[in-house]
Specification:
Radius of gyration: 32 Å
Strand order of the largest sheet: 1-2
Order of helices and strands: EEEEEEEEEEEEHH
Structural class: alpha+beta
Shape: rod-shaped
Strand content: 15-25%
Number of strands: 12
Number of helices: 2
Distance between the termini: 114 Å
Largest sheet: 2 strands, antiparallel
Helix content: 25-40%
Length: 154
């Protein structure tokens, strides 16, 4: 008589096969293998691994994200803050936060980037001022130099 491997249940997997099972809610309610890159908690609860994404919590199609750190995984295939959509590749824009794409993939919060813009404008203005002053000093004539020296002595 052949020995059968232990049965998988909703709460634990078969030790013999180490394959998690999930129960499909349908007419036949047959168990199927848990999709790759996920863990199954019994019933139809599939937890997607970090770095992977699925379109809804009912889908069994799991995709690797182009930028793995943008896809947090989980039951709802959450995306990192500022990202949403297929494979977490779209920058978020809602009533409270607006993100824009910097480079090929990174989404930056506009609120955070405002400070950087102000600093950049300050640096540019300081540069223009120093170049202008240096340019004026380089074109100073002898007569203007005497007037400036007399004014500095007072």
């Amino acid at each position: 008589r052949r020995r059968r491997p232990p049965r998988s249940t909703q709460s634990r997997s078969s030790a013999a096969s180490d394959v998690y099972k999930r129960q499909v809610h349908g007419e036949d309610k047959q168990c199927q293998e848990c999709p790759k890159y996920s863990q199954c908690l019994g019933g139809n609860k599939i937890i997607v691994d970090p770095g992977y994404w699925r379109s809804s919590n009912q889908s069994t199609n799991i995709y690797r994200c182009n930028v793995e750190e943008y896809c947090l995984g989980g039951y709802d295939s959450s995306c990192r803050e500022g990202y949403y959509g297929p494979l977490c590749r779209v920058c978020l824009a809602n009533e409270t936060d607006i993100y824009f794409r910097q480079g090929q993939s990174e989404c930056i919060n506009c609120k955070e980037s405002t400070y950087a813009v102000i600093v950049a404008i300050g640096i540019i203005l300081a540069y223009i001022t120093s170049v202008s002053y240096t340019h004026l000093r380089a074109h100073e004539t002898g007569r203007n130099l005497v007037c400036r020296l007399l004014l500095e002595q007072k």
